[in-house]
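dude i think i finally got it to work??
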Amino acid sequence: MSDLPRKAVTRTAKLAALPLGFAGRTALGIGKRIGGRPAEAIATELQQRTAEQLFATLGSLKGGAMKFGQALSVFESALPEEVAGPYRAALTKLQDAAPPMPSSTVHQVLAERLGADWRELFTEFSDKPAAAASIGQVHRAVWHDGREVAVKVQYPGAGEALLSDLSQLGRFARLVGPLIPGMDVKPLITELRERVSEELDYGLEAEAQRAYAAEFTDDPDVRVPQVVHQSEQVLITEWMEGTALAEIVRDGTQAERDAAGQLLARFLFSGTARTGLLHADPHPGNFRILPDGRLGVMDFGTVDRLPEGLPEPIGVTLRMTLEGRAEDVYELLCAEGFVKPDIELRPEAVLDYLLPIIEPAQTEEFRFSREWMREQGARIADPRSPAHQLGKQLNLPPSYLLIHRVTLSTIGVLCQLGARVRMRDELADWLPGFAPGEEADEGGVPPARVEALDDLAEPGDPAEVATTA
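look at this
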């Protein structure tokens, strides 16, 4: 038997208990305040306890509830500090940890998917999970040919749990409002339901990872583990040693943060240009800094398939905004569906709305920070601000939805790192339409990077290999 609660009634009951817990703690806080404790102390304690209950529930349920918590975690940088403090530790835990399933369940899945003699495929297999995440957990092992591997085993019932959770979380979206003030989480849940279900198909994940691994073989900046074996509910890849990006966020030096941030920004744009696939789950648990300084990338369960690379209108709009071409920007946004036909806006107001958001592209080097992220969040979320009123009138076309979320999530991680990044260089090298006079070639790679790609080192000794959580 799996430890994953699968019956909808059981899972719904756990989620439904959350508002009762919130109400109980609020009443407790009022009682303590009457007893003479300061209101600020009560508020902090309530936030801490709320975080503990919310994320303990999401973590124990795994599935879609866990994935929802991970999606929220990358927006932690936008929270006001007085709110972020109590939630930060609980949010971080969701990025790469969850209660593991029993070894007996793991063995059962492996026997069903790899055969009764599955142990003969490995010379070593650790029953203790190296990582536990939303859809499956990872075990370290040695493949029969001597390679160290990561064995990802999908939780039994994960599919049913995933869809049930995301349906139920839609009903309780208002409960997580305090996490991201001003953010409507319902569209996030809807999009997660439509996209994250792809993670259940390890065949699709293996296909995407093979494409990335082939493209980034011997790359000087990025390492993607090779797929060793794949079957339903089991994915085996090369193991990759390194420092978790979450550790760099927590304890890294400024130099380590800057280096990690630059690599992350480069991967976001170059990966899509070179593979036609957008890695769509950029939370810190999916990245490692390898001993040789490269960025190790894992978990290709959710990708956006973009054969032509990132849409050229994104780059063109960014460039024209930086050039102050309000009329041209507005015309292109209308043509792409960001402004609906029945809406009329002032082009100058749209330009004023966009310029602060694209500040990282305005200078040679930009320092991402939680403070900057909070300023942007407050500017757009404050109902009294012109930016809020204008933002409500803009439209996000469905084809841009996942691109938008991945970009925001990556920026959130860069802000958690507090990294200094040469973002404009990455945009000019990899984003079609951003550099004046440059068009992407048929493979989606701008000429500025063709020479660099041609100069990649010849295949050499295998590099360190990594966990795929």
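Residues 218 and 450 are 16 Å apart (CA to CA).
im so relieved honestly
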